[in-house]
Design brief:
Elements lengths: L1 E3 L18 E5 L5 E5 L10 E5 L4 E3 L1 H16 L9 H11 L8 H11 L11 H18 L4 E5 L1
Length: 154
């Protein structure tokens, strides 16, 4: 298994990452881990999914496999210009707090609903069922396509 940690070269500037908050980059059009960069090297790369590590932090190979599958599925959901954007927003909230959000993934959904109580809710379908279904699809894809890399920034 490959463990990526401090002194790994940044994909953009090719300098070692020795401090700060390393950023893991994922493709958004297909399930693919693109690499690691300094936080300052990737902010203009809008076509990438980014997960910022906050040391000390560790992501197991199962968590990385989940994220690899998660990003393309997230970007395939309806965007902000459509009325059915609620599922994408819930998933973005889940991703923001990942991996802690996976302890109780339903909390993200309930928090989202509470925040938007005053707004007209225009989601077509059952948001809770779609939320659970989305997570199940990502988890199944992650189990079918495991990876052999972990990130450890002690």
């Amino acid at each position: 298994m490959v463990t990526i940690t401090w002194n790994h070269l940044c994909n953009y500037c090719q300098h070692p990452i020795i401090r700060g908050k390393p950023t893991i980059m994922f493709a958004t059009d297909k399930p693919l881990l693109l690499g690691l960069s300094h936080t300052t090297c990737s902010p203009t790369k809008y076509n990438l999914g980014r997960h910022q590590m906050i040391p000390p932090d560790y992501l197991s190979r199962e968590q990385i496999a989940f994220l690899i599958q998660f990003y393309p599925m997230l970007y395939a959901l309806p965007n902000a210009l459509t009325p059915n954007v609620a599922l994408r927003q819930c998933m973005a909230d889940l991703l923001y707090y990942y991996p802690l959000s996976m302890i109780d993934p339903m909390k993200c959904l309930h928090d989202y609903k509470e925040m938007h109580l005053d707004e007209p809710f225009t989601y077509v379908g059952d948001l809770e069922a779609d939320y659970i279904g989305f997570l199940a699809k990502v988890q199944k894809a992650a189990q079918i396509n495991p990876v052999d890399v972990e990130f450890n920034f002690p």
